[in-house]
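Q: Hi! First time doing this. I have a protein sequence and I read that you can turn it into a structure. Is that right? Here it is:
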Amino acid sequence: MTRFFVTLVAAIAVQIPASAPSEAGPYQNRLSECIVASATDADRLTLIRWVVTAYLQNPAVGELAQVPPETANEVSEKMARLFEKLAFETCHGEMQDAFRFEGPGALETAFTTFGSVAGRGLTGDPQVNSYMLDFVSHVDHTRLKALTGIAD
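A: Yes, that's right. Below is the predicted 3D structure, encoded as structure tokens:
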């Protein structure tokens, strides 16, 4: 059953940024590949920090953590620098082609892919993984076993 929950949590965590359209064009694919391949660990962390900071702006989850305005601004500025590096330097040609031939949606999809990859890296952290699996202790295992037929 533990394996079931590890798989479930991984699937949920990877999809948190957003779901990408199932069919991407060739230019968007090249852009996604360029962004993912050229992003450093620091770049992935910048993206994750920006996404988390953005989510915390929503009052429904903002009570979980407070991000001081100065910190939120710093995170936003770092994300802007990362976007500029990827768009104007590292993946300039791919970005230009994707936008020109497949439209702005290709950029959104490429960055969603980047977010997904960055999120997988974050969920690989033992403390994050441990917390994400903690909900298992609150699940009614008898009902789950009846539903799935999977034993402990």
